[in-house]
Amino acid sequence: MDVSATAALRHLATTQALRRVPIGIIGPREATQHQCALAEELGFAMAQHGLQLLCGGKNGVMEAACKGHAAGGGLPIGLLPDEEWQAANPYVAIPIATGIGPARNAIIARSCLVLVAIGGGVGTLSEMALGLQFKRLVLALADAPVVDGVPRLDSTEAALARIADRILWNL
Amino acid sequence: MDVSATAALRHLATTQALRRVPIGIIGPREATQHQCALAEELGFAMAQHGLQLLCGGKNGVMEAACKGHAAGGGLPIGLLPDEEWQAANPYVAIPIATGIGPARNAIIARSCLVLVAIGGGVGTLSEMALGLQFKRLVLALADAPVVDGVPRLDSTEAALARIADRILWNL
Amino acid sequence: MDVSATAALRHLATTQALRRVPIGIIGPREATQHQCALAEELGFAMAQHGLQLLCGGKNGVMEAACKGHAAGGGLPIGLLPDEEWQAANPYVAIPIATGIGPARNAIIARSCLVLVAIGGGVGTLSEMALGLQFKRLVLALADAPVVDGVPRLDSTEAALARIADRILWNL
Amino acid sequence: MDVSATAALRHLATTQALRRVPIGIIGPREATQHQCALAEELGFAMAQHGLQLLCGGKNGVMEAACKGHAAGGGLPIGLLPDEEWQAANPYVAIPIATGIGPARNAIIARSCLVLVAIGGGVGTLSEMALGLQFKRLVLALADAPVVDGVPRLDSTEAALARIADRILWNL
Prior knowledge:
Chain A is of the alpha/beta class. Chain A has helices at about 5-15, 35-50, 60-70, 105-110, 120-135, 155-170; strands at about 25, 55, 75-80, 95, 115-120, 135-140. Chain A contains six helices and six strands; from the N terminus they run H-E-H-E-H-E-E-H-E-H-E-H. In chain A, strands 4-3-2-1-5-6 form a six-stranded parallel β-sheet, sandwiched between helices. In chain A, helix 5 links the parallel strand 5 (about 115-120) and strand 6 (about 135-140). In chain A, helix 1 (about 5-15) packs across helix 6 (about 155-170), helix 2 packs parallel to helix 6 (about 155-170) and helix 4 packs across helix 5. The longest helix of chain A is centred in the first third of the chain and has 16 residues, at about 35-50. Chains in contact: A-B, A-C, A-D, B-C, B-D, C-D. The interface of A and C includes residues 105, 110, 122, 147 and 149 of A.
């Protein structure tokens, strides 16, 4: 029987106690409706496939990703730049207030197995570049910055398939 | 009806979608049997009361805390000093590889609402002092370092009661 | 009398106790001869104009920049990813061992008034993007990554003139 | 000829291009006159012996240390928690704005060869404990917190002698 990587991942997630190595969704605080729709859709799909979302915990793309992930049954983690957990958007289930400001981007990039950029400016660009520097798989959706070594995908399904390939076969 | 803070917490955790603000268990990598037994017991009780464990993700007290928390149905987070998630102890459900070395202690101290020290030397002492600096509630079990402003408790039940008081009434 | 910004800076540096807000030179550890020649030349010119060099303290472009700066009478600072100062290249006068790994890039980008990229890959790109995110002036020499908002200059004199403009008139 | 370690250090500093591995002075923002007098005296003596001061760059003990060091001909470094260099006290010659908040204490403790605590509360205590964790020599003057493994000295001369012993013979 042939199964897709995505289906295999879903099967594993519901039958095994896999490590929940975080998958990151990164993007701007001030986001377009289209960017937010994509982030919410991807966050939801990730939760449905047993994937742990980690993001910056603030507004825009981050809030949409958390909203989708929570709706899909996930426990979205927000790695905040702030000193207190109350600064998290309302959909963050597990707030981690780092108190180190935007330098927390380096920890998001390091700790995630895959980073999916949805839109974004120089803040997102720095996270993408840090991700590449740390040998993470970095993917781009919508109008994320163009960076060498970052595949541009045209759907959240395509992103999920790439994430599954990375988890299952380290592709 | 009078209920204990611990019972109230348990009720809330199972009926409400509370934010899972992390509670930290801190202590040495090379730990005594007694320290590990306490950490495992507290991790288990925390999970049973819906509390999110965050720890350093390494061995000794950290591993015992994760083991208990996972056994109690929790998803223990390990905030690792290392660059890759594989450095986590086997009971960490959500590994967060920070790549910043022992400086990650400052983030553990910042992000946790309460820090419970079980044994420990200068590493644990620095986390306790950072916790106090950040106005966190810091508790000591077993032979944790003596620090002004840190109540010394004689059981995991007493620690859980103090955690519940902090969450419910900010005591 | 008309004077260039560069000449004004030189005058000020030798007659006033200006704050030595760091100027960064960033680039790859494995650098070409051309990149190293530029870094050494710029480091030297910076020292001659009383400017404080801060860099990552390792090899390649960083070492060449320190070599030039020291030869020009400066005290180059190396903000190291490592845990011990001995990891600095031999021309670093003031080693600052951060122990936080490549996350120290965020501190280089934050602490420098101007960042000059000479060549470089994703590591340099992440520092450039962090610099833009923190509203720093970021300049590119030689074959540094192409980034929106980063002027590409064709000589170290041009870079020095831009640095002087930023210091004197916040341009 | 017998010479003291302090005299040997002074000789070396004025005849050799030694690495300026930082020496830290740590203590509270709100300091007593006595604490400030000690910090200023030690900062001055350090400069006279060619030692590089690094401190947190803020007020109280930090400002007094910088004032003395600058008066002695040094270039005091302030490793600031803030995002912009303007937050430094007026005597800081080289401001390094880390933007990571009090987590910068971990970098002060890591980067200094010796840490001298003058007075202080839990913030100073955390730096002292981090210093011990990183195997630094940690010294206490005046009413600094009592910590196992931290010698308590009764004069800045005694502190300088211990610093010289560490630099010259790694004692």
